[in-house]
Amino acid sequence: MNTWIKKIHMYTGLLNFTILCVFGLAGIVVTAEAPDIFHAGTLPVVATLPFIAPASASDQQVGEMIRQQLQPSHAGKANLSRDAKHRLVADFYSVNGLVRATLLEGESRVQVETRRNSIWRFIDNAHATTIQESASDWSTGAWAWYIELSIWSLMVMALSGLWLGLTTRWPFWWTKASLLAGTVSFAIFYWVQK
């Protein structure tokens, strides 16, 4: 039985290798405070396009019309807001950056700023992608499902590792010390957070 559990443990580890690298690098990016797209020192690509919003349309409807015209890559629905000049601003976020469209109603145009993430912020955003997000393309959805699969397979890996530790490595003192250290660390963290 342990032979099969070792194989399950090993193959779930290989399945999770990429995601664990992404999660680890994302932690380093945040810890090192890598600049985000607004503070990276690179200027956005700015373009102005013709756009006429119907006077009777709501902000949500106009945001959807802007999304249909721009078709921002890998982005979901627009995050809508009004700026200090009360202009409608539609932000389209993706793993690779931001497309910000500002409606210039009096000029019948929309100003589009495109900001691309560095590889480090791409990794940070990739690690935060979930199946709850509404992506417009298959690749973001597939990545989100890979993360979901990895979360569940990490649970399998942890349980199979616990089983293997208890059945094949229990006589060694570091097995007991590792189990004790992990359990006590979590208990202390839980107690402190209460």
Describe this protein's structure:
- By secondary structure, the chain is α+β, with helices and mostly antiparallel strands.
- The chain has two domains: 2-34 and 140-193, no CATH class; 45-116, no CATH class.
- It has five helices and five strands.
- It has helices at residues 2-31, 59-70, 119-127, 138-168, 173-193; strands spanning 45-50, 79-82, 88-94, 97-104, 109-116.
- Strands 1-5-4-3-2 form a five-stranded antiparallel sheet.
- α1 packs across α3 and α1 packs across α4.
User: How many DSSP H or I helices?
Assistant: 5
How much of the sequence lies in strands comes to 15-25%
For the largest beta-sheet, the strand count, sense and barrel status come to: 5 strands, antiparallel
Poorly predicted ranges? none
List keywords for this structure.
single chain; 194 residues; alpha+beta; 2 domains; five-stranded antiparallel sheet; 5 helices; 17% strand
Write the layout of secondary structure elements.
Layout: H1 2-31, E1 45-50, H2 59-70, E2 79-82, E3 88-94, E4 97-104, E5 109-116, H3 119-127, H4 138-168, H5 173-193
Antiparallel strand pairs: 1-5, 2-3, 3-4, 4-5
Short description:
The protein is an alpha+beta fold.
